[in-house]
Write a structure and sequence with these properties.
The complex is a heterodimer of chains A (about 475) and B (about 400). Helices cover about 20% and strands about 40% of the residues of chain A. By secondary structure, chain A is an alpha+beta fold. Among the domains of chain A are: about 130 residues, Immunoglobulin-like, CATH 2.60.40; about 80 residues; about 120 residues, Immunoglobulin-like. In chain B, strands 2-3 form a two-stranded antiparallel sheet. Classes of the chains: A alpha+beta (about 475), B mainly alpha (about 400). The interface between A and B is large, with 64 and 62 residues.
Chain lengths: ~475, ~400
């Protein structure tokens, strides 16, 4: 009953979400193997903590008989985890399992997903941030209902005080005299004063809890300050991080880089750069800026803490006209794309050297692309920072920004750190293979767009030593 | 008494010793008892298992505490107003045009308040996350509802006791008072661990609640040792829960688990309330038989001195004992309340709030003691007035 009521309340509340890791796209998508089984895991984390995470696990190649899930906080791991919950098969779908888990504290968690079937058992780990991101206002109708209910009860209390003072001590059958009636009126007046004071005190208490939630429990991404300066004919971007409470743990590299910074020209999204700033000190990073067209840019910076907690920091900067055509790139894996030429209506984007990238699907919780050479054969993709491909999703209204990999939205480093800590805790092997084996013919990113509307998607691959970026405009309709 | 007997209703009071207490009075007391039993079970459940549902046993017992008295009193109000005899209607008060016993109206009010807390609490969880503490605004609304359900039951027992010319209702009245003491202590749990009892916050809270309750009961009950009996009921009830809950195996179902408990956690051993309660009873027997504004004010001063002189040293030394290994056994269950979500450590055996660097620093200074004494006096005085009124409640 309470759950039903929760859903009802959730359905009608106006919800606002501040910035978070993966801006505006809180759900976690992961595809990988658990022993012999290929799984897709989708976690819908709660937006207040403690809260319940919804977990869907799909066995991609069938044959899974039982799925169990277990939440583990980064610092206690499976040693501090309860017995796993068995996910229930979803009626009408033989390969889909569903479970619900409580996340009790803020911070880095991992969901251990265990699959069992005829081929044995296997486990995978899906890291996620457990953070409070929602600021809810009480809906007017709900506030009115509570107010009327409480008001009626308070009025009733005043009447009861009057009745108690007027009649309660009389012998049955006696009626109150004038003095007792006046005494009852005085008692009711005092009751009104006490009730007003209690309501005022209650409101102050509520405000103080709300202030504590806003200041201490609601997730605030670290503030990022972006400044530009010209240095030896090179435009240099300085990024300085102002650490918020609880985000002070050291950073660790995510597929080889301490920071992945994305510059996206606003508002037309016609220029995009994927850079890897160098750390200057614990708070500061810098990188040279490629020759991007002048204009206002949003800066999104992905970082991972040693706890496995990930953040996407956001800032803005005004890029001046390029001072030099040549670039002394800070990092060999930096890449950028300047184009107003989008993919054709058939979602075909022409890369350089005769290669073609196509968007071949957005259904079934997957974003899929192909890259072919001029003979229409699958291109030989080289690892780009250990990945088959990278993708960035940016909604045209700027409310969604996500950095994707073929295994999903999770942090590979968080996953590996969790496995390492488990090995250290128990002295037993605990290996997690991130993602599914790559397919030669298609690049697949597990993802669902968080809301309908127009999006721009950049997909980056490495072919013949060259990083190439395809750009697609997708319109997601309400399903 | 300034009354006029203008309605010629003959209301014979049952004086026969064989007259029994109406069945629904016992049901009301049973319902009121469900409230603290459910609440203490719920606290242990959240400390041990963590995960709950609307229909879990501890919740059901608590709801029964609101539902049973609420329904019984609803029935009583309807019966009295629409179908009551002249005698029954004459022994009622008027509320918005309807007639029923005062306690029934208070009970119904409390039930509706408990109901109000449900959607408020649900909204609260969705807005600020599940509140794992006892004290939160929606829980305060729930506690207010529970308090009034129990108060309604107490008033009906008071009416029964005061109208009977024998001992009927006397034990039920003081038993309900003891139940209300348990409820009050539950509300103060987060400030009342032994580790708090060398700081001022615990004594500030205690000096409000316990003099108020003990004096109200001492003045209104017809038993010989009412405050001591109510305190004994509080201690016995709490100790039973302290001892019984850990008999049941249970495991945490939420992460992170810092304290891997394998049985239901205990609840903290009760305060030694019988000590100040006995002192209060002695003083009341010596000086408190005849109420009066000035007399009661002077009496409140004496009782404040006695209460503080007995309560504070008793808790001061007992809490010191409770932090030693000697109390780490099934009887005192020191520290056995530690939930799965807290890391055991030396802090469990230390007094809290005594570190000047801590934001919770609340030392027991002379100034704080003065504030505690003033509070104890004010609420002892209020308790005497409430008790005087309650000793006269007949409807």
């Amino acid at each position: 009953m309470r759950r039903g009521l929760s859903l009802l309340v959730l359905g009608v509340l106006g919800i606002t979400r501040p910035l978070e890791a993966h801006i505006g796209s809180p759900n976690v998508f992961y595809e990988g193997t658990a022993g012999p089984y290929a799984l897709r895991v989708i976690v819908r984390p709660p937006d207040v903590i403690p809260g319940r995470a919804q977990i869907n696990v799909r066995a991609l190649d069938g044959n899974v008989q039982k799925i169990s899930v277990l939440p583990a906080r980064w610092d206690t791991g499976t040693k501090g985890a309860p017995a796993p919950d068995v996910a229930k098969p979803v009626r009408g779908d033989t390969n889909l399992f569903s479970a619900e888990l409580w996340l009790m504290n803020s911070g880095a968690y991992s969901i251990l997903v265990n699959a069992e079937g005829p081929a044995g058992a296997g486990t995978t780990v899906v890291p996620l941030n457990s953070i409070a991101t929602a600021r809810r206002e009480m809906p007017r109708w709900f506030g009115t209902m509570l107010g009327v209910w409480a008001g009626a009860l308070l009025l009733a209390m005043v009447s009861l005080v009057g009745a108690a003072a007027r009649e309660s001590v009389l012998r049955p059958g006696d009626t109150p005299d004038r003095r007792r009636i006046w005494r009852a009126r005085a008692a009711m007046t005092i009751a009104i004063l006490v009730i007003v004071a209690a309501v005022w005190g209650g409101k102050r208490w509520w405000n103080s809890v709300d202030g504590d939630y806003r200041n201490n429990r609601l997730y605030h991404a670290d503030r990022l300050n972006a400044t530009l300066e010209t240095n030896d004919s090179q435009l240099v971007l300085h990024l300085r991080r102002a650490v918020e409470r609880g985000n002070s743990r050291p950073l660790v590299p995510e597929h080889g880089k301490l920071m992945h910074a994305f510059l996206v020209r606003q508002p037309a999204l016609g220029a995009f750069a994927h850079l890897h700033p160098t750390r200057i000190d614990s708070r500061s990073f810098e990188t040279t800026v490629p020759p991007l067209p002048a204009g206002k840019y949003k800066v999104f910076a992905d970082i991972t803490h040693e706890s496995g907690f990930t953040q996407t920091l956001v800032s803005e900067c005004d890029v001046p006209p390029p001072v030099s055509a040549s670039l002394a790139s800070s990092d060999p894996d930096d890449s950028w794309c300047i184009s107003e030429v989008r993919a054709s209506p058939k979602q075909v984007f022409q890369l350089t050297n005769g290669f073609t990238m196509r968007c071949v699907g957005t259904a079934d919780s997957r974003l899929q692309f192909t890259v072919t050479d001029k003979d229409e054969k699958p291109a030989a993709l080289e690892p780009y920072m250990d990945m088959q491909a990278h993708a960035v999703v940016h909604s045209l209204d700027g409310s969604v920004f996500t950095h994707l990999h073929p295994f999903g939205t999770v942090s590979m480093t968080s996953q590996q750190l969790f496995a390492k800590r488990e090995r250290e805790r128990f002295g037993k092997p605990f290996e997690i293979l991130c993602g599914l084996p790559p397919r030669a013919d298609v690049i697949s990113f597990p993802y669902e767009f968080p809301k309908p509307g127009p999006y721009r998607v950049w997909v980056q691959v490495k072919i013949q030593g060259q990083i190439m970026t395809g750009m697609f405009d997708l319109t997601i309709n309400e399903t | 008494m300034h009354t006029t007997a203008s309605i010629p209703v003959t209301v014979p009071l049952e004086t026969s010793r064989s007259a029994s207490v109406p069945w629904y009075f016992k049901l009301l007391v049973f319902g009121a008892t469900c409230i603290p039993v459910g609440a203490l079970w719920d606290i242990s459940w959240h400390s041990t298992i963590g995960r709950d549902t609307f229909w879990m046993p501890a919740h059901i017992v608590t709801y029964m505490g609101g539902l049973i008295p609420g329904l019984v009193c609803g029935w009583l109000a309807l019966k009295t107003h629409f179908f009551g005899s002249a005698q029954e209607r004459a022994a009622a008060v008027t509320f918005w045009g309807f007639r029923a016993p005062l306690g029934a109206w208070v009970c119904i009010w409390g039930s509706f308040m408990m109901l109000l807390s449900a959607p408020f609490d649900d909204w609260w969880h969705n807005t600020y996350g599940l509140d794992v503490q006892i004290l939160s605004p929606p829980h305060a609304v729930l506690a207010l509802g529970m308090f009034h359900v129990a108060l309604g039951v107490l008033l009906q027992m008071a009416s029964l006791q005061n109208r009977a010319e024998d001992t009927r209702g006397q034990f039920l009245f003081i038993f309900t008072g003891g139940i209300m003491l348990i409820m009050a202590a539950i509300f103060l749990t987060e400030w009342s661990f032994p580790n708090h009892q060398h700081g001022s916050r615990f004594y500030r809270a205690s000096s409000v609640v316990y003099p108020l309750y003990l004096l109200t009961l001492a003045r209104s009950s017809k038993l010989r040792w009412p405050a001591t009996t109510a305190a004994a009921i509080y201690m016995t009830g709490t100790m039973l829960m302290t001892w019984l809950l850990p008999l049941f195996p249970a495991q945490p179902k939420l992460a992170p688990i810092y304290n891997p408990v394998d049985h239901m956690t205990s609840i903290p051993f009760p305060l030694l309330l019988v000590v100040p309660a006995f002192g209060i009873d002695v003083i009341m027997r010596l000086l408190g038989r005849r109420p009066g504004w000035l007399r009661d004010t002077g009496l409140a001063v004496v009782i404040t001195i006695v209460f503080l002189a007995l309560f504070m040293p008793a808790q001061w030394w007992f809490s010191k004992f409770m932090l030693t290994p000697a109390a780490d056994n099934w009887f005192f269950a020191a520290g056995h309340w530690l939930p799965y979500s807290e890391q055991p450590g030396p802090w469990l055996h230390q007094f809290w709030g005594l570190d000047p660097e801590s934001r919770y620093y609340n030392p027991l200074t002379i100034k704080q003691f003065g504030g505690i004494a003033v509070r104890a006096f004010i609420f002892a005085r209020i308790g005497l007035s409430l008790g005087t009124w309650m000793s006269r409640v007949r409807r």
